[in-house]
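Practice problem 4.
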């Protein structure tokens, strides 16, 4: 897919669609009671979750036709753009650590965050399902991505390859998030401080652009797999940096704005939203790079 001016316009249109519909109009469904509080899945509720899933599916469906004939490549960005607006609008992670100062409370908080990325990934997946449904009605080419082809890809790309790629994606993302989402110098190894929202945006995008580039370049995997692998980043960080009495030590000796690792200062919605956007960008950069190398060699 060439990034011509018309495709740039298509990206702008789906970005605007996601920002307006999810980021603004659907904000009350996820808005925390405290205006300065963070956006969490626990604040959405069952009815709100059903609403978001249906809305995400509908936006993916509409986004496909808005960006046709490149709906599969561009329409999938609609929901991540909307969630990114929530991620920017949300309060920081430090609001949660400040409201849970005791070691037992902090440990419960860490455990509650472990699988929350899966929730936001399901919202992104609902948007992707909407794109697939729209593509089934009006395919743009013979290369359309159907559920049958996804299953075929899983068979072709063995489970071992996918698991290896997922491990590398998590390691690359972990390293780059730790390097970029820092409010303190890393060379003296102090505790990571709460990064600014803009810094989180940059870190999340850059980390998954690089991770998706690696996944495509060396494993031939699409943007789907790095996005899915993003749900493993938080559990991996907790296992690596919150072992033993680390949580209790931080609760008792460090300010609430300090974290064992920078990943733990990023909200799940921020991680997944920017992982989805960054994975798509990284995938197409790898495609463009291979195209450039092929024609340069010719």
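Answer key:
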């Amino acid at each position: 897919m060439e990034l011509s001016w018309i495709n740039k316009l298509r990206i702008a249109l789906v970005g605007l669609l996601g920002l307006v519909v999810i980021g603004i109009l659907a904000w009350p469904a996820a808005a925390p009671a405290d205006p300065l509080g963070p956006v969490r899945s626990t604040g959405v509720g069952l009815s709100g979750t059903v609403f978001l899933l249906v809305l995400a599916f509908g936006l993916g469906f509409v986004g496909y036709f808005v960006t046709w004939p490149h709906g599969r490549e561009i329409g999938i960005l609609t929901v991540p753009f909307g969630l990114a607006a929530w991620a920017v609008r949300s309060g920081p992670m430090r609001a949660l650590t400040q409201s849970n100062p005791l070691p037992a409370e902090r440990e419960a908080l860490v455990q509650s965050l472990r699988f929350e990325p899966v929730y936001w990934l399901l919202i992104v997946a609902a948007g992707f399902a909407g794109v697939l449904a729209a593509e089934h009605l009006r395919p743009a080419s013979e290369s359309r991505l159907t559920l049958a082809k996804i299953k075929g890809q899983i068979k072709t790309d063995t489970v071992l390859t996918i698991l290896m790629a997922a491990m590398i994606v998590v390691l690359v993302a972990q390293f780059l998030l730790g390097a970029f989402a820092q409010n303190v110098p890393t060379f003296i190894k102090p505790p990571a401080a709460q990064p600014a929202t803009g810094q989180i945006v940059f870190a999340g995008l850059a980390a998954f652009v690089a991770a998706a580039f690696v996944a495509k370049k060396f494993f031939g995997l699409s943007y789907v797999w790095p996005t899915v692998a993003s749900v493993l980043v938080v559990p991996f960080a907790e296992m690596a940096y919150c072992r033993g009495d680390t949580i209790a030590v931080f609760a008792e000796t460090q300010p609430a704005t300090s974290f064992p690792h920078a990943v733990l200062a990023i909200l799940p919605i921020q991680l997944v939203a920017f992982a989805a956007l960054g994975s798509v960008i990284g995938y197409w950069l790898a495609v463009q790079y291979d195209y450039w190398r092929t024609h340069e060699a010719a």
